[in-house]
Amino acid sequence: MKKFILAVAALVLPVFLVSNMHAADREHTLKIYNWADYIDMTNVLNKFPEWYKEQTGEEVNVLYQTFDINESMLTEIEVGHEDYDVICPSEYIIERMLRQGLLQPINKDFGTTPDYTKLVSPFAVEKFQQMAPDSSICVADYTVGYMWGTTGMLYNTSLVKAEDIRSLSGLLSPNFQGKIFMKNAFRDIYSVVVLYVYREEIARGEVTRDELVANVTDERINRVEEYLNQLKNNIAGWEVDFGKEEMTKGKAWMNLSWSGDAQWAIDEAANVGVSLDYLVPEEGSNVWFDGWCIPKYAINTKAASYFINYMCMPENAILNMEEIGYVSVIASPEILEWANDSSITQTANLTYFFGEGADSVHANQVFYPDQRVIERCALMHDCGVMTEDMLAMWSRVKGDNLSPALIVFILVVMALIIFVVILQSINRNRQRNMQRKRRKNRK
Amino acid sequence: MKSSKLRMVLQSRSTWAWPYALFLVCLVLLPLILIGVYAFTDPEGHFTIQNFVSFFTKSEAINTFIYSIAIALITTIICLLLGYPAAYIMALAEFKTPQVMAMLFILPMWINFLLRTIATVELFHMFGLPLGEGALLFGMVYDFLPFMIYPIYNTLQKMDMNLIEAAHDLGANRMQVFTKVTLPLSLSGIYSGIVMVFMPTVSTFAIAELLTHNKVTLFGSLIQRSFGEGGIGMWNYGAALSLIMLIIIGLTSFFGGDKEDINR
Amino acid sequence: MLENYKKSKIEKRGLGERIIAHAYLWLLLVVLYAPILLIIIFSFTKSKVFGNWEGFTLGLYQNLFTGYDVATNVQVDPNLYRAIFFTVIIALIAAVISTILGTLAAIGIYYMHPRGRKALTFLNSIPMINPDILTGISLFLLFVFLGISRGFGTVVAAHVVFCTPYVVLSVLPRLSKMDPNIYEAALDLGATPFQALRKVMMPELWPGMISGFILSLTLSIDDFGVTFFTKGSNGLETLSTFIYADARKGGLTPELRPLFSLIFLTILILLIIMNIRTHKQQNKTT
After folding, report:
1. What residues in A contact B215, CB-CB < 8 Å?
2. Model confidence pLDDT, tens digit, residues B9-53
3. What is the domain count for chain C?
4. Which chain C residues touch A72 with a CB distance below 8 Å?
5. Which domains, ranges and CATH numbers included, belong to chain B?
């Protein structure tokens, strides 16, 4: 008994110690909620308290946590009223949060500290403004972009020729049976496929890409579903994280990826002698963003605002980009210089991003696509009330596995079970009757 | 006076379950009622049965549900066929430390699920085996086999050997000893095993996602999708799906309750 | 009794039969452990992708222990270590509570009248049927509804919810094999209910309790769905939640491979030591 109590005490004591560490006051803590592997911890995150002290003279203790699904993060805040100070959601979640009033404006009154948030590319600011629930809201007051990219096809250059898959129609080729990985994210798939199935209407000027992606209708869902059903045989699987790994191992030939993941895969594959490349489909694709914002229930909004400012500093942007392999929305001259790599022969027109003087930059076009590519990319939106129909289509496309054999199997098993149960009831009845007879006989 | 009443209550063993009963009511029943509230309302909060109607009218939902049950049944049967002999051998064979052997079957579960499933995928790659339903069944059996072995092993260990000896002495051959003596006595363990494997298998989905590259969808995925990617607007539907699954499978537990009576 | 039975069985069964029986068991174990062997093998290479072999090195082990990647001086995510700590603590506490609660419950259920027993058995199986995301969300809703802030306590409570049913199911079969009269006998001899429980019933039920305890530990360590929704925003992480967030970008942190290889080997060695000790004990008594 004594040993038991000692053991329990030994377990519980360290817990109290640790949880008391967190009781350290909330006003001087900064709760950050971000994607995993999405920041340079050593050189950026860990140096923030020091920088904050320099700028404001105040202490701050950073509590950094990670999530992997946007909607779960949203649920925690919307339903659970969790008090994260600064979060980094995807653009469509920012749109939803703005609509529901779940974000606070960022306090850009930084005193003597320069406002680095002004360095965000006007391209990003303009795209973010598309997410405003009504024209009175200036989205830039509420969110500052972090990283951005495109969605496109990552492909194995020795197995697939770029010309063959520049159009989504190329994916339907019977040569590619079981060789294509698609993203397990219905919004991304929808926004790429819808631009393909409506390519003629786009060419005739009847509808714009932005309109197709932003407004989901049943007709558009149906046509996307048609294409996906045609593609089914060629699909090796629907992935979110294992696709790029499979590509580096040469298991799949193509993978619909995000640009940052694609670059990661290209680099990793190079290590093992596999050559990959990335292209954005010619009919169009989507351009995505995530951004820092301050949720409604945040407490330490001052440190949150300063943190967002801190992340916009060009040197930090560069450190983050190099660490996580994605592209920052910051467009200062330092970034332009960083992006310019003389070992790359092809140049890209990046005036949409950096402004004047960036019309032929030797940039990695996976990261910084040429203007012509951006022109055919649309921003993803929240589906709102159409989510249910979208998910239904999604489940239909992915879930068609039932075969008649299995149905027969189940019926057989059920019949057996019912048979056994009936047998047992009969047995029990018989036993009871026999017991009654015995009792009668004794009497 | 008071102390003897307390004594009587404590002595009666049926009251020992009350703390757990209270716990279940607060932490299982009450949350379920909340889920039920979600299932019977729409996102604005009005009462509706639309969520259930949606389930019965959506082909993919019923499709997936029946498919998941089929997979669960197959998994349970395979686990039983593989697990019973294993438990039997461990309990009756000449192992000096059968507890250690039993632990060996549980040990793989200590490796994080995601990591070991990724390793399983790699294993399949190495042997050139395709991912798909076969891999799915392998993964399911892999994860749930210990749950079948443990209860059967426990019952077999506790078996009264005198009965076996007696049967042998009465001239029964080994087959008869097994079917008439060992098997019926281990029935409660078999039942526990079936329950511990079948019920969670119907709602498992993560294995399917990883071992078939998401080409096979199980019912649990539909629920996860409604609660996850669907956002709060789809929670009502997800809640309805969960209740449906709960009710239909809960019926099995009700049926099986009879078996306990027989053994007593 | 068991010895006599085993001896007679052994005489009746030939060597061939025993070999087949043992071979079956070992074959099963080999298949079960094949993926784990892979994990151990790939813990010795520094590739970011599981399955790519980039040369033999102990680098990952080094990183795991120093917390830094020596080659690039990048920190190994410190949340990993906190996650390990909390995973262990939560699992131990939840398993202990579940075992006690579940054993008492199993005894109570067994001796209840049939209607109560059916109801309680049904309630007991609910956490087993529910996908963990449902248990997680329903508890999340409960805590929000009751205004309970989510953190360590709620996670432990949640773990007890899904572990206890397994304890109950592990102990119940042992109960049905137990002689029902020994409890009353103990009481008649003057024992208090608590003493009767400890000295008379527990030894009979002990193997079931141990199975339940170990099952609880295993389930708790590996849980994701329930922990995710009940951990709140105060920095609580377990290995599972850490790994799931980690898997999204850049593949699983490579240092996880040596971590789990070490966990596995430690327990395996413990088991072997236990095995040897019982061998020695048995040799002494015979």
Report:
1. 235, 237-238, 398
2. 666 777 788 889 999 999 999 999 999 999 999 888 888 888 888
3. 2
4. 228-229
5. 59-263 (1.10.3720.10)
